[in-house]
Amino acid sequence: MKRFGLVALTTLCLLASPAAWAEEVVEHAQGAEAAAEAAPAHGAPAPQAEQGQVHEAAPVHQAQAVHAEPAQGHEAVAEHGEAHGNAHGGGHAAGRAEQSELSCEQILSMHEAEEENPAVADVILHHVSDTYNFEFESPFSHTKVGTNLKQVQCKMFGWNGVVHLGTLAVDLTPTKHTVWMWIAALILIAMFWGAAPKKGQIVPSGVGTLLEIMVVFVRDEIARKNIPGKDAERYTPYLLNVFFFILVINFLGLVPYAAAATSNVSVTMALALFTFVFTQIAGIRAAGFGGYLKHLTGGVHPALWPIMIPVEVLGLFTKPFALTMRLFANMVAGHIVIFFLLGLIFIMKTMALAPVSVAFAFGIYLLEIFVALVQAYVFTMLSSLFIGMGSAMAHHDHGGDHGAQGHGEPQAHH
User: What pTM did the predictor assign?
Assistant: First the structure.
């Protein structure tokens, strides 16, 4: 079980991470299209002049004309250059996402523009969103200590992180939430490795006692009460990994300067997909592939299959969708509320609100500690319930086949 737990934990991290990376593909493409449309509008003469400087010897008066452009045009072009790493070098506007991919030379030359007085909404979104920047901000100034993960990747491997799958460009660069998932995994491995009983030690001590209580709780009160028979022991390692992984990530989100990866919908979706896969495996193991397909008909007359089968298939995906949105919404909402309560001081521009805002924010923070534990429990409990429903497919079919023969009590139980 210990080996399975380590393998499952590693798999959770590796497969949940690309889901977070997938968001960058959409943002990358949207940013490229926006820049391609905006660049000619803000500085139409500039690209022609720059082309002339690159491909032919430009006259002196053309160079002066380029430098004499309105300041507004220069600022717009500079903003697009900073935001996209000068992806349009030489003045050539790229119309496709493939043409706007940054090389390592362009990535290493990027410099992030800093706002002296950012809006409260921008600060909130900056803290709850996922970025390439892994940084720690000073509470007394705008000073930041950190690094850009794309630049680190280019320095170490000379690779911009983009993989081409046919016409699709997927950016596999680790993000902030990915790094915090790795940190959570390392904490879990170190915690259980250190709490493991030594040779000759029967009863654990210290942290091992607390972990044993939680492990026994998940096994006896969650797995065995929702998954029938021996299947409970089979899926307990997965439930333990999900419970402790989500719990550690949620608690990391409450640490100053850290981030909760579970506030990323891509991460929660990846975790929910694991439960979805195990649910289908449990159903196929219990009822066989034929029985699994028969269950999708709902046991109704074949004439009603065109109605019942789409409903049953839709029901298969509503379960992981509920897991995804419940965990994501609860985790991101608490952080937004805390930041907004503190932001009221800056919105109203008065220190008179500080005692009230800080008091309410501290109250929500204490509530978030409880929510972090509850959400880990709820996700694990619902996962065991869904897996148990899959394992019980054979029992449902058995009760349905014998319901007409007078076995009313088992049928009512099911």
Answer: 0.71
